[in-house]
Amino acid sequence: xxxxAATLPDTAAGDTPWRLALVAMAAVGLAFLALQIASxxxxxxxxxxxxxDPYIHLAMAEQIxxxxxxxxxxxxxxxxxxxxxxxxxxxxxGQPAQRYLPLVWNxxxxxxxxxxxxxxxWRAGYGASGWGLALAALxxxxxxxxxxxxxxxxxxxxxAASLAIVLGLLRFFDEKTVPAALILGILLAPLLRFEGAALxxxxxxxxxxxxxxxxxLGLLALAVLPLALFCAFLVSLGLDPLPSSVRAxxxxxxxxxxxxxxxxxxxxxxxxxxxxxxxLAVLVVLCAVFALIPALRHSPRWRLLPxxxxxxxxxxxxxxxxxxxxxxxxxxxxxxxxxLAVVGGLRTRPxxxxxxxxxAMAGTLYLPLVANLYPSAARAVHVQQAQMARFAKEHLxxxxxVNDLGYVxxxxxxxxxxxxxxxxxxxxxxxxxxxxxxxxxxxxxxEAEVPFAMVYDLWFHDELGPDWRLLGQLxxxxxxxxxGGRVVNFFLTDPRADPAPYLAALESWRAGLPxxxxxxxxxxxx
Length: 526
Description:
By secondary structure, the chain is mainly alpha-helical. Helix content is about 55%, strand content about 5%. The chain contains 22 helices and six strands. The protein has helices spanning about 20-40, 55-65, 85-90, 100-125, 130-140, 145-150, 155-175, 180-190, 195-210, 215-235, 245-250, 260-275, 275-290, 295, 305-320, 330-345, 350-370, 375-385, 385-395, 425-430, 440-445, 500-510; strands at about 400, 415-420, 450-455, 470-475, 485-490, 515-520. Strands 2-1-3-5-4-6 form a six-stranded mixed β-sheet, with helices on one face. The termini are far apart. The model is unreliable at about 1-15 (pLDDT under 50).
C-alpha cells in the first residue's frame, strides 16, 4: 500500500495512543528503581552517582547561580560539555539538596524517552498486540536507557530530545505539519550535547527537502543559532569556542596525527572490531539497505532513513563510545526507533526482525553491565571521591589540586586547581603540549598558591613538582569499574610548609573512612 492511510497506525479496537507509552514507562521505571536500590545497598546505604562527572556540572551550576561561569569563584572555565545541563542544576546551588537534581532530571528524561519510544511504536502501527507490547517494554531495556539514566548526566535528556526529533519527523511526514515535538527536539538536542547537532540539522534539512523550505530553514536556525550563541558566549569570556571537556576528548587517542584517510580507516576499523561501534554500524547499514527497498521508497517516511543513517554515520566517525556507556545510547535509541517506525508503518513488519538484530546485540552487551557492574560503581565513588571531598572541605579547608575534578570542587569555598585541564585552560594546554617542560604542574600549583594535591598515582610523573612531598596514599579496596585509578597520592606541594598540621588533619580524616577505603602514611613522614 502506498497511500497516506498505509502510514497511519493500525491499532486494535480499544487501543489508545498512550498504551505502549505507559508500558514502556512502567518497564524502565521499575528497572531503574531496582538499579537504584541495588546501588544504594551495595554502597552501604548511601546514595552516590556511579562516577564523579555529575559533580562537575553541579560545581558549574553553583558558579552560574552566583553570576560566574566555571568551578571556582572569579575564574572562568567551560568545564562542562553540555551548554544547557549545568543551567538546569542551578536551583538549590551549593546546598545538599542540589546534588539530587541530576537524579531528578534523569528520572524525568528516562520517563520522557520511554513515553516517546512508546508513542513512536504506536504511530508506526504496532498497537497493543504482543509484538507491540514486547517492543515497548524490552526495547528501552535492551538499549540501556536505564543504565544511561543511572549516570546522572545530560545524556538521558539528550536521548529524549533525539526521540522527540524522530517522533516529530514521523508526524511531519504523515501529516505535513510541523509538530511541537520536532521543534523542541531540534532546539534542545544540540544544547544538551554538541553531537545532537547532526541529527537536528539533518532533520531540518529533511523538512526543507520535503517542500517546506521556510519551516525547514526555521528549524535549521533553531538547531544552529543557539549553539553558535553559546560558543560566542564562551569567546566573550576569553575562552575557546568549544568547552574544555570537548576539546580534551577530541585531543589525543589513536587518531591523533593522522590525515583524513587515516582517521577514517581507524574509525572504520573500530566499527568492525569494537562491540559498541558494531551495533551502530549495523543500524547504519540497515538504514542504507532499507532505503533501497521499493516498498519503502514509496512512503514519505522513507525520508527518515537518510536522516537516521547520516546521524549514525556522523557519530561513528566523530562521536565517542563507552565510559559508563553513555555516549552512544542516544543514537542507538533514535535509529532503532526510527527504523522500527519506517518498516512497521508500511505493513512490512518482517523487516522489523532485522532491526531486532542490533537491538539484541545491544541487550547482550548492556544488560549484564546494568545487572552486575553498574550497582557497584557508586560504592567506589563513595569510598574514594566522596572521601577526598570530605578531606578537602572538612579537614584541609585550603586550596587543593586534583586531576579528577568534580566531587572535590562542588560546594567547596576554597580554590580547586584542575591539573587535568577541564577547568583550567593553562593546565589543558600544557598537558596536551608534548614539549611541555617537566614539573609544569608544580609551577601551576605554586603560582596559584595551592599547598596540597590529591593525584592518581599513575596519571602523572615528572609533570609534578620535583619537590612535592608524598604524605600518604588513599587506596580503594572495592570493585572500581569507573574510577580513574584505585590509588590516590596525597602531596604537600609547598616544601617550606610545616607538615604537622596536614598530618594531623589526615589522621583525623582517616578515622572516618568507610569500609573499603584505606589510607597509609608514607614512610618517614611521621
